Amino acid sequence: MRKYLASLVFMGSVAAASSTMAAPAVNEAESTTPTVAVQQVRMPLPGIREEAAMVLVGTALIGLAAAVRRAA
Questions:
Q1: What CA–CA distance (Å, rounded) separates 17 from 23?
Q2: Residue 58 lies in a domain
Q3: Which of 51, 61, 59, 48 lies closest to 20 in space, CA to CA?
């Protein structure tokens, strides 16, 4: 049961970390500036890469499956 709980805590922390890192920073000073036409350039958002996120989720799912199998 402890492994099951540890897997759930791990998944929760991964979900919380990924949502926190993916949120863009809000700056109140920028909202009061006048509108100016500029060319848009796509910049990568700060956070973990997709491959790293997939590895973390896969590892958590394997741990969860092992915990469920042992509990049954």
A1: 10
A2: yes
A3: 48
Domain count, the chain: 1
27-36 b/e with 16+ CB inside 10 Å = b?
Answer: eeeeeeeeee
Query: What is the domain extent for residue 2?
Result: 1-22+46-72
Residue 12 falls within a domain, yes or no? yes
Is residue 34, in this structure, part of any structural domain at all? no
Give pTM, 2 decimals.
0.37
For 16-68, what is each residue's pLDDT tens digit? 766 556 555 555 555 566 677 777 777 776 777 788 889 999 999 999 999 99
Q: Residue for token digits 């700060």?
A: 46
